[in-house]
Amino acid sequence: MTKPVNVLTAVLEAHGKTCACRGSCGTEHSGLRCDATHSGKGKPLLAAPQYPNASDTQNAAAPFEDLRPWCWKCWRDALNRERERAADMRRRELEEGQVSLFDVDREPAA
Asked: b/e map of 81-104 (b: 16 or more CB within 10 Å)?
């Protein structure tokens, strides 16, 4: 009987047992890559999208091909950075959309 394979095991077999972070967490890793490994001791790696999304729903829906091994610290930090980036983008879009509301030099619409 073959042992059932879970998603993390399949991701580790496909991409190695080292955290895939290449700095998206905000840390300059030595060798351009995080050196955290999945050794069975301490906190194991997790399977998550190669490029984090701001939404948990998008992260959970990522196809298997997009998953990579991440250490918990890098994933948490990369996810927070992506959420901050997305919130900043939404804030700028909202501000740009409101500029015309306060344009007093413009003639009102008929």
From this structure: ebeeeeeeeeeeeeeeeeeeeeee
Q: In which residue are the tokens 């009987």 written?
A: 1
The whole-model pTM stands at: 0.77
pLDDT at 85: 95
State the DSSP string of the chain.
-PPP--HHHHHHHHH-SB---SSTTS---GGGS---B--SSSSPPEEEESS--SSHHHHHT--GGGEEEE-HHHHHHHHHHHHHHHHHHHHHHHHHHHGGGG-TTSPPP-
